[in-house]
Amino acid sequence: MYKVILLNSSPRKQSNTKDVLNVCAKAIESQGIEVEIIDLKGKDIKSCIACNKCVEKGNCVLNDGLPEIIDKIRNSQGFIPAAPVYFGTARADIMAALQRIGKVSRATNKFLSWMVGGPIAVARRGGQTLTLQEMSMFFNINEMIIVGSNYWNMVFGGLEGTAIEDSEGIDNIELFGKNVAKLINLINK
Ligand SMILES: Cc1cc2nc3c(=O)[nH]c(=O)nc-3n(C[C@H](O)[C@H](O)[C@H](O)COP(=O)(O)O)c2cc1C
User: Fold this and answer.
1) Is 128 a pocket residue for ligand 1 (Cβ < 6 Å)?
2) Is the C-beta atom of 158 inside 6 A of ligand 1?
3) 63: part of which helix (H) or strand (E)?
4) From CA 45, how far away is CA 86, in angstroms rounded?
5) Going from the N-terminus, what domains does the chain have, and what CATH number goes with each?
6) In degrees rounded to 5, what are phi and psi of residue 38?
């Protein structure tokens, strides 16, 4: 069975980003694809230290829980990282994670190549477009396939539990999830 990993970088207990990912995950599952939502919450994700040990070891040597997540991504066909917007850009730990995931892929068998997905950004009021662009750089440099929808993958919500009320944003994420799943089913035939 094909699988998509959805990565949530919110530190909040009742996270808007997680609520949005739950919607996305359901849409993917509706097309017969397995999903796993992984939270970075509680992990102290470190930034790449450019040690290059991933070339020789096949995974990142920073022991903060990310290497295990990298193994899960390696064995999946889809990847969807999601970030709350902090001061107009992506929360820092998701960028640190993406840089390390990309470094390991490029140091090994390029497992990200042709992986399907795209980024999601959640914010109270502004900064989603730059956050999406920031995260898209990871997809483009790793030969990944970003899937489209009716709008960009941005959802509005500030207080906990409010993003789900952004019906246009949520509809867009549902369509995005379905499109991700449809493409995975097509290209892995
Ligand atoms: C440090 C910090 C910076 C933030 N910066 C922005 C911002 O630039 N633009 C915005 O619209 N919301 C900003 N927010 C609000 C969050 O993006 C918003 O509450 C979002 O729903 C959080 O998602 P979460 O519940 O998944 O953590 C900021 C929140 C924090 C804690």
Assistant:
1) no
2) yes
3) none
4) 17
5) 3-187 (3.40.50.360)
6) -115, 135
Bridge-based pairing of strands 3-8 and 34-39 is parallel
Secondary structure element (H or E) that encloses residue 117, with its range: strand 116-117
Structure tokens at 23: 């919607």
Per-residue pLDDT of the chain (189 residues; tens, 9 = 90+): 999 999 999 999 999 999 999 999 999 999 999 999 999 999 999 999 999 999 999 999 999 999 999 999 999 999 999 999 999 999 999 999 999 999 999 999 999 999 999 999 999 999 999 999 999 999 999 999 999 999 999 999 999 999 999 999 999 999 999 999 999 999 998
Closest residue to atom 31 of ligand 1, CA basis: 86
157 lines ligand 1 (CB under 6 A): yes
**Model pTM score:** 0.98
Q: Which two structure tokens, joined as six digits, stand for 34?
A: 């397995």
Cα–Cα distance, 1 to 32 (Å, whole number): 8
Q: Tell me if 15 CB under 6 Å of ligand 1.
A: yes
Query: What is the number of other CB atoms lying within 10 angstroms of the CB of residue 109?
Result: 10
Distance CA 175, CA 138 (A): 22
Eight-class DSSP state of 142: T
